[in-house]
């Protein structure tokens, strides 16, 4: 070994190209839908076209006689063996929640709910036969509009007697973390500023690119479920808990999974139905959804009304914030369900030193597709509300939006800082990130151009949007989750196995679906054990290989799962040390470990980790009482959440005559602590930005007045393309996290959380001088134009599809 | 059933297919060419893009019988003798993929784009990829990958 200590290049911080890519760029992939097992049968679902209806009969006789149909089942054909879809987070003890059967036999509660399943030898034959299943319904009135549903005008589930599921409240006065907010608001009404707004978080669809797919193989001693899921471990637990199969008889595999964004953080009716059918028939079965089925029945995200009251002194010092949310759960309380808005409860105060804070959320059942986590889950809603409000306050006071933020934010020398929501922020530097972002975008020049355009009455006006976000991720100490009545913990598990040849197998309970764990985790372990990056193999996503884990969501994999890896690797070193000492005939106390090598202090004697691994494997010469294994496990439970932050600035041009928008520039400076792989981080930021920008400008799940999803295909649900988007400028400041040894903070959701208000603030900023102070999302040209014309927020979305054909000419024309 | 004979990734294949079978279903279900994937029902997403006689097509929008006598190249036939195609290499180099599901279609479309226009501007790249959806990358690094494959200087 010729390299000296100084010459060994550290893996952490390198822009390593991804280990995952070779397979993915050559088509050597294992998506669930790629799997074909001997004798495998295919499922097609029969779904309700009605938002709310009683099922009066299901006639499967015609379908059963169709070619190569093996079986047709409705809900009545299964009893308890079908199980139920679970809610893992009852946010209050008295939460009202309907039973969620995967395939109800009596009543459907949203359009798209499964009422029957056809099993055939091919997917095409199953779909053909599904058309022959004759279901009779008695249509019931449907609860569709969120505000009307909250008033119990029409009941989504008549037997529950109400649509109101749970009311969850945090009050800083009661919690002792701040003053009572009503006092602050009352004072501001007499001698300060009160900003009152109502914002709409429209309904979104996660729209991962790989449609969900599930294969159930009941032919071995363990039943195997392959699923396009983010949560193989939680899925296994839920199957065991609800279908009567012993957990030890269940193996869940998440093979290659094509994106999730929270949308595959779910236990789904389709998985449960495939499980029941596979067990019933004793044959492997597969179900792969169409894109339309995915948009219709995979869970949706966001969907809130936000009533907001901000009080401030006349100089813009905020004195209190009151948040009252209505959150649409859809037809059922999903696995996280009402927990999504609760995850936002601690973030409305964001980076600011507010003395008083009150939050409430009323979750509401409706007859729409159920909602759950979508990238950011609660924090984008919170960040949108407060960052829009801070712009409104700046306008009221008459100062620059950044100045109002500076006046209120936590200064870098005030960390650690306990917020009015009761969280302790460990580190951050909002001044530095903001200064860098301003420099990147050329802030002062843009403000000068904006002034010039306003002065000249240019038909194209310029707006600059600011978003100084923080978020909480890496959920979190299990103890804290317990106090919130969350059904699981927040730990993560890892194993490090030293192979005889000196190669390393790393097992993680995180379950990647595009994040690049195999690469980033290899870098961490390579540094820690001093082995080559190429010699580390990261294994995940199979409960037989990675038996313990809590999977991937909430920007937790690195900050929780990565730290578990560090702890497991450190245990390997500790186990190797006495063996190395024995072989070197030295005292363990005289050994030091660096760059993959144990050396005896003050001598040139040493031994590589790989040599210790081989000697341990041979076990010919181990110290007495030492076991012949270096393999180690660790389960890490974080001591706190994790608080990345950043400043995002967006320049938008608005054509005031047409409402057309053009994004001119978008820069961001995120502080995510120490960075393991800057290339992967940049990808997470870019992708996150576009999802947040898409909420601001394009995406919305729209229902018509009978509860039919009219944005039920990629023709109607407006996912942005390469031609709609621009290139971004991304940079970082670094305030290492103090609550994990790697100093890392989560980055998976940051871009999405930050960008939505940056864009809407920019649009409003461009036309504020024309009397506009809000534009409802998505900010379509029509809505922008209407807002300019009449000063409102542009109106609600027309709840009807654009006709695909000219009605006068007919569909056949 | 209709008999079709065609060349896929350099190998001649021949099968009886239902007239309604899509080319993408033929590739996946009959030939096991699962590198080509299905992302939507409406030919919006482009995940299934392959080359038909050297030109990119969405294989969900072509019937298998229409490919009779044709030469089809999928993502699995792009690398030659174990050497990656420059566009494949560029996607890895520039981190132009995350989950990888849109990647086969995105690469096949990019290859066709560069064949038509070997030195495209950023705008031409973005317009040329408009028919291929990606949910992970925000397109930023996909555009960089195409620029890199075109031999252009690439900034981060």
UniProtKB/TrEMBL annotation, chain A:
Alphabetical UniProt keywords: Molybdenum, Oxidoreductase
Every Aldehyde oxidase/xanthine dehydrogenase a/b hammerhead domain range: 26-141
GO molecular function ontology, one term from the record: iron ion binding
Protein name listed in UniProt: Molybdopterin-dependent oxidoreductase
UniProt biased composition (Basic and acidic residues): 7-21
Region of interest called Disordered, as start-end residue ranges on this chain: 1-21, 790-813
SMART domains named among the record's database cross-references: Ald_Xan_dh_C (SM01008)
Domain of life of the organism encoding this protein: Bacteria
Gene3D superfamilies, alphabetized: Aldehyde oxidase/xanthine dehydrogenase, a/b hammerhead, Aldehyde oxidase/xanthine dehydrogenase, molybdopterin binding domain
Residues spanning the signal sequence: none
From TrEMBL, chain B:
Keyword Metal-binding listed: yes
Keywords: 2Fe-2S, Iron, Iron-sulfur, Metal-binding, Oxidoreductase
Pathway: Alkaloid degradation; nicotine degradation
Any GO MF annotation of the entry: 2 iron, 2 sulfur cluster binding
Keyword Ribosomal protein: no
Database matches in SUPFAM superfamilies: 2Fe-2S ferredoxin-like (SSF54292), CO dehydrogenase ISP C-domain like (SSF47741)
2Fe-2S ferredoxin-type domain ranges (all copies): 2-78
InterPro entries: 2Fe-2S-bd, 2Fe-2S-bd_dom_sf, 2Fe-2S_ferredoxin-like_sf, 2Fe-2S_ferredoxin-type, Beta-grasp_dom_sf, Diverse_Oxidoreductases
A Pfam family recorded for this sequence: Fer2
Descriptive protein name: 2Fe-2S iron-sulfur cluster binding domain-containing protein
């Amino acid at each position: 070994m010729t390299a000296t200590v100084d010459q060994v290049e550290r893996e952490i911080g390198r822009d390593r190209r991804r280990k995952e890519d070779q397979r993915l760029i050559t088509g050597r992939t294992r998506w669930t839908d790629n799997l074909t097992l001997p004798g495998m049968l295919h499922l097609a679902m029969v779904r309700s076209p009605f938002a709310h209806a009683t099922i009066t009969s299901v006639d499967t006789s015609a379908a059963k006689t169709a070619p190569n149909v093996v079986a047709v089942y409705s809900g009545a054909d299964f009893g308890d063996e079908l199980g139920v879809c679970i809610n893992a987070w009852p946010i209050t003890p008295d939460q009202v929640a309907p039973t969620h059967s995967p395939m109800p036999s009596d009543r459907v509660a949203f359009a798209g709910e499964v009422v029957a399943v056809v099993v055939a030898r091919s997917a095409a034959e199953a779909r053909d036969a599904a058309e022959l299943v004759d279901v009779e319904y008695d249509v019931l009135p449907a609860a569709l509009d969120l505000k009307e549903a909250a008033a119990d005008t029409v009941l989504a589930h008549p037997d529950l007697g109400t649509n109101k599921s749970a009311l969850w409240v945090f009050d800083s006065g009661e919690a002792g973390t701040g003053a009572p907010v009503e006092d602050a608001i009352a004072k501001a009404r007499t001698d300060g500023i009160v900003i009152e707004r109502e914002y709409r978080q429209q309904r979104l669809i996660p729209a991962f690119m790989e449609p969900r797919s599930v294969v159930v193989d009941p032919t071995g001693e363990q039943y195997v479920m392959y699923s396009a899921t983010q949560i193989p471990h939680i899925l296994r637990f839920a199957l065991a808990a609800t279908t009567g199969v012993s957990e030890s008889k269940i193996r869940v595999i998440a093979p290659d999974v094509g994106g999730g964004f929270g949308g595959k953080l779910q236990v789904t009716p389709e998985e449960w139905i495939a499980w029941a059918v596979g067990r019933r028939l004793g044959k492997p079965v597969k179900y792969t959804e169409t894109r339309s089925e995915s948009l219709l029945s995979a869970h949706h995200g966001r969907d809130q009304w936000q009533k907001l009251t901000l009080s401030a002194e006349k100089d813009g010092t905020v004195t209190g914030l009151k948040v009252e949310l209505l959150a649409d759960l859809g037809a059922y309380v999903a696995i996280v369900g009402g927990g999504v808005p609760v995850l936002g409860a601690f973030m409305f105060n964001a980076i600011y030193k507010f003395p008083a804070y009150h939050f409430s959320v009323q979750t509401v059942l409706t007859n729409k597709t159920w909602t759950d986590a979508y990238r950011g889950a609660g924090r984008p809603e919170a960040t949108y509300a407060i960052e829009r409000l801070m712009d409104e306050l700046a306008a009221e006071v008459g100062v620059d939006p950044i100045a109002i933020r500076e006046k209120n934010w936590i200064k870098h020398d005030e960390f650690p800082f306990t917020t009015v929501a009761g969280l302790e922020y460990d580190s951050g530097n909002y001044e530095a990130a903001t200064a860098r972002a301003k420099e990147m975008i050329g802030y002062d020049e843009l403000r000068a151009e904006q002034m010039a355009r306003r002065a000249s009455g240019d038909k194209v006006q310029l707006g600059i949007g600011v978003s100084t976000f923080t978020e909480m991720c890496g959920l979190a100490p299990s103890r804290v989750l317990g106090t919130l009545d969350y059904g699981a913990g927040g730990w993560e598990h890892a194993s490090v196995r030293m192979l005889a040849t000196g190669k390393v197998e790393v097992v993680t309970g995180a379950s990647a679906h595009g994040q690049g764990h195999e690469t980033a985790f290899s870098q961490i372990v390579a540094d820690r054990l001093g082995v080559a990056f190429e010699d580390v193999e990261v294994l995940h996503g199979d409960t037989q290989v990675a038996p313990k884990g809590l999977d991937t969501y909430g920007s937790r994999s690195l900050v929780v799962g990565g730290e578990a890896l560090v702890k497991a690797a450190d245990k390997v070193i500790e186990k190797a040390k006495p063996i190395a000492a024995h072989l070197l005939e030295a005292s363990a106390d005289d050994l030091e470990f660096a760059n993959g090598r144990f050396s005896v202090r003050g001598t040139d004697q040493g031994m590589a980790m790989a040599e210790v691994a081989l000697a341990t494997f041979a076990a010919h010469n181990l110290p007495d009482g030492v076991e012949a294994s270096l393999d180690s496990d660790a389960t890490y439970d974080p001591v706190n959440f994790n608080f990345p932050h950043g400043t995002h600035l967006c320049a938008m041009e608005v054509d005031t005559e047409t409402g057309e928008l053009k994004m001119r520039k978008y820069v961001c400076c995120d502080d995510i602590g120490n960075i393991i792989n800057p290339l992967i981080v940049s990808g997470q930021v870019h992708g996150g930005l576009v999802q947040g920008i898409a909420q601001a400008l394009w995406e919305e799940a729209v229902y018509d007045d009978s509860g039919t999803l009219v944005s039920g295909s990629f023709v109607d649900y407006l996912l942005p393309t390469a031609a709609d988007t621009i290139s971004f400028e991304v940079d970082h400041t670094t305030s290492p996290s103090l609550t994990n040894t790697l100093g890392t903070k989560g980055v998976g959701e940051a871009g999405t959380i930050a960008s939505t208000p940056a864009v809407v603030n920019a649009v409003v900023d461009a036309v504020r001088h024309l009397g506009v102070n809000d534009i409802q999302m998505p900010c379509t040209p029509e809505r922008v134009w209407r807002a300019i014309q009449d000063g409102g927020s542009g109106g609600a979305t027309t709840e009807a599809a654009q006709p695909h054909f000219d009605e006068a000419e007919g569909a056949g024309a | 059933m209709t008999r079709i004979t065609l060349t896929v990734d350099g190998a001649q294949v021949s099968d009886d297919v239902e007239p309604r079978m899509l080319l993408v279903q033929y590739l996946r279900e009959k030939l096991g060419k699962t590198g080509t994937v299905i992302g939507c029902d409406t030919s919006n997403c482009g995940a299934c893009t392959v080359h038909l006689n050297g030109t990119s097509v969405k294989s969900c929008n072509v019937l298998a019988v229409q490919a009779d006598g044709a030469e089809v190249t999928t993502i699995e036939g792009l690398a030659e003798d174990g050497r990656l195609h420059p566009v494949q290499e560029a996607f890895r180099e520039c981190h132009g993929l995350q989950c990888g599901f849109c990647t086969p279609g995105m690469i096949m479309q990019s290859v066709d784009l560069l064949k038509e226009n070997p030195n495209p501007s950023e705008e031409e790249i973005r317009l040329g990829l408009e028919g291929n959806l990606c949910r992970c990358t925000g397109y930023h690094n996909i555009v960089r990958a195409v620029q890199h494959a075109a031999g252009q200087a690439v900034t981060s």
